[in-house]
Amino acid sequence: MDPNPSSDQPEGDIAGEEVRPRSALYRAVWRWHFYAGMFAIPVIVILSISGIIYLLKPQIEGVLYHGQTTDTPGDLTVSYEKQLEAVQERYPDMPVLAMEPPASASRATRFHLDNGGTGGFEPAGQTVFVNPYTAEIEGTRNNAYNPAQIAVQIHGSLMTANWLGDAKWGDYFIELIAGWTVVLVVTGVYLWWPRGRGGRRLKGVLIPRFNLGGSRIKWRDVHAVTGVMFAFIFMFFLITGMMWTNIWGAKYGEAAASFNETFPEVASESTLPTVGETVGEGRTSWAQSQLPVLPSGKPVGDREHHGGSIEWDPSAGAPLDAVVATAQENGFSTGYALWWPEDEVGSWAVFRYPDTGSKPNQSALDEKVLFIDQYTAAPIGSYSFGDYGVFAMATDFGISLHEGREWGLISQFLALSGTLAILTSSATAVVMWYKRRPQGLGAPRRIYSPSAMAGLVAITLTLGVFFPLVGLSLVALLIIDFAILRNIPPLARFFGISSRSAAA
């Protein structure tokens, strides 16, 4: 946020050597680094803390819902139909959305119901845990109060669906903050970059100088070194997190589709509704959400039965056990979610992806989706990670790493380390700002330079191409900074603007 000792004095080199005042471009970059930090850090802290909670979802849920998810194994399991009947009998007014078979012999079957609540990463509403050996309901969970559910709603939209009635506003704001954080990282690396003789020293460049008397230098070094050493991870979190956003993420999806790089084999089915439209965004992997839902056939009575040895009348629809049998015959054993057909034309959809609730921390390489005819239980189409295009492969693998799911505990440790580094860099920025006890806002002062202004405009245009919301906000801030604040002396002093300054 503020890597230099004072906004009013010549800046010291990041390696500790006193040098002449920096160039006008350096001062402009420093000023916008300060603005980006002031704007983004409060939200970065919120996103980091909520991200840590979601990262530790397997451990948190294992503690909170241990009694509802662990059963004493029996000799024989009862049919899924009987388990379903028990759920429907207990909750007759809640439609069943999905089921997750037990992940192991000591786990419960999970049924996800719609209780009229808002959606989220997990199916909306209620999760019911059923003993697979007795069909008894072990417990239930309102997902609105699940810590992981709350965390992901904060992380994705700041829960604006609850207080503004629509999650898109929070999504837009987080996308804007993510873009500004890109500005923060890029400008931070520029300010850190070693210059002069001091640039050849390790201390202050790669190692914080804890042995110096001035405590602010120590904080500055921790801030700069931590930020730079983890800059790649910061950028990775930002880019992979923006895959789900309404503007940048949608454009990314359009780019993938234009290159026929999502599911190349099913491009001709593009007129069908997608998984994201029917099942819901965030309930499957990114690539799976882009996949068109293949339709079931007509409910006629003489079609071939599937689903093992189970017999039924296809016109009445395939029983749940037959659908599960088809899923098992096609490579699904544990760690998958089975979604009900949306209507009389839809199909059963079976998903396996890294964060399937009953068995998280699976690899994106093992992703698979299967569509099953709702009348005959016949497999309609199956797609695995190897069927994806390059865009989809890279996206799902990146998101799996982002969420700390790809390599189990190793991924969780790496993601946790990166997030703690973000919090450290943010906290030290605030400490440095406070220690300087600035007059007014404490923004670095402008100095006159047409070349710096030209450079700032070029940066604005470049960012506007890649991050539209950031480009628009930069234009607005430039207008405020140059056309309004400088003409109001009290505000000019507060924001570190000289009344005769005309550039960054």
Observed structural traits:
alpha+beta, 3 domains, 8-stranded antiparallel beta sheet, disordered N terminus, disordered C terminus, 504 residues, Nuclear Transport Factor 2, Chain: A
Tell me the number of strands. 8
For the sheet with most strands, the description reads: 8 strands, antiparallel
Weakly predicted, low-confidence segments? 1-21, 119-123, 499-504
- By secondary-structure content and strand pairing, the structural class works out as alpha+beta
Beta-strand percent range? 5-15%
Number of domains: 3
Count helical runs: 18
Strand order of the largest sheet: 4-3-2-1-5-6-7-8
Shape: elongated
Characterization of the model:
An 8-stranded antiparallel beta sheet has the order 4-3-2-1-5-6-7-8. The protein has 18 helices and 8 strands. It has 504 residues and is of the alpha+beta class. The longest helix is centred in the N-terminal third of the chain and has 32 residues. It has 3 domains: 225 residues, no CATH class; 74 residues, Nuclear Transport Factor 2, Chain: A (Roll); 142 residues, no CATH class. 46% of the residues lie in helices and 8% in strands. The chain is elongated, with a radius of gyration of 27 Å.
Summarize the structure.
This protein has 504 residues and is an alpha+beta fold. It is 46% helix and 8% strand. The chain folds into 3 domains: 225 residues, no CATH class; 74 residues, Roll (Nuclear Transport Factor 2, Chain: A); 142 residues, no CATH class.
